[in-house]
Write a structure and sequence with these properties.
The protein is mostly helical and 112 residues long. It has two domains: 41 residues; 55 residues, Beta-Lactamase, CATH 3.30.450. The chain is built from four helices and two strands. It has a two-stranded antiparallel ribbon. It is elongated, with a radius of gyration of 25 Å.
Length: 112
């Protein structure tokens, strides 16, 4: 086999029988799978965003050690510009005090 040619031997069912040159084949599949997953993620994100807009609901995520995430619809519901970095303080400014009192133990409440 010449230096520029790589082979990836497969059995009759398509499974690899040797690793000779399979790296290039695997890389191609990894890129194709990654692109497919990226497209699927974008599709799901679009459906979620549309569902939130239609139902006037929002979503958020919170990694305690890093950041708080709000969806576009959450920003809109809370009447904050999308460029505003979400914080718990901003959230509590938009929640009625009775709602805060009912959901958080008295000793854990943040003064608003």
């Amino acid at each position: 086999m010449s230096a520029g040619v790589q082979a990836c031997q497969k059995d009759g069912e398509g499974s690899r029988t040797s690793q000779l040159g399979c790296e290039q084949d695997r890389d191609f599949l990894d890129i194709a799978e990654q692109e497919q997953m990226t497209q699927e993620l974008r599709r799901r994100e679009a459906y979620r965003a549309q569902a939130e807009a239609l139902s006037y609901t929002g979503s958020f995520g919170w990694n305690v050690s890093t950041d708080l995430y709000w969806s576009d619809e959450t920003h809109q519901i809370l009447e904050y510009k999308r460029t505003i970095k979400p914080t718990l303080d901003l959230l509590f400014r938009r929640v009625h005090p009775v709602g805060i009192e009912d959901s958080i133990p008295q000793d854990k409440q943040i003064p608003v």
